[in-house]
Task: structure prediction
Amino acid sequence: MSSPVTSVAFLPSRIHGTGGFATVNFIKGGRVIEYVGERIDKAESLNRCEAGNQCLFHLDEHWDLDGNVSWNPARFLNHSCSPNCDAELIEGRIWIVARRDIAAGEELTFNYSYDLTDFREHPCRCGSSTCAGFIVAEDLFEHVRGR
Ligand SMILES: C[S@@+](CC[C@H](N)C(=O)[O-])C[C@H]1O[C@@H](n2cnc3c(N)ncnc32)[C@H](O)[C@@H]1O
Ligand SMILES: [Zn+2]
Result:
């Protein structure tokens, strides 16, 4: 049985609801927490996406991961336009990886990388000085800024 991750605490966040916070220092490139979930095929993933599920990750050409499950504490990590982590696909698994050195106590965030679909329904409150105003992928910031 896998042991619970003790290097991340789940606490009230200034960004939204509950967030994940580092309880230890992480070095740039270090694995912070695995983003686990249910492995589903692309058709089921499309169904769940159309039903509003926002926790879907690409695994490979056949399979996606639905992280909207109770056994995935990483689902509480909030989005930021200036995140300190990235979600990375490593050998068929999704890991939240430190994008820079992170000090204990910092809220752990990554960019949810949403596309422009219904972007106005996802205003961003990350509070960073570079906030794009909406939860979208970094390469789309200039398309939504000031909208
Ligand atoms: C997977 S949940 C993250 C955990 C969430 N904080 C909670 O308590 O359930 C994703 C939702 O959190 C909220 N959220 C995450 N990051 C946000 C941000 N930067 N600005 C505004 N809302 C955010 C949005 O409502 C989003 O749909
Ligand atoms: Zn933002």
About this structure: The mean pLDDT is 96. The chain has two domains: 8-36+72-144, 37-68. The first helix runs from residue 42 to 50.
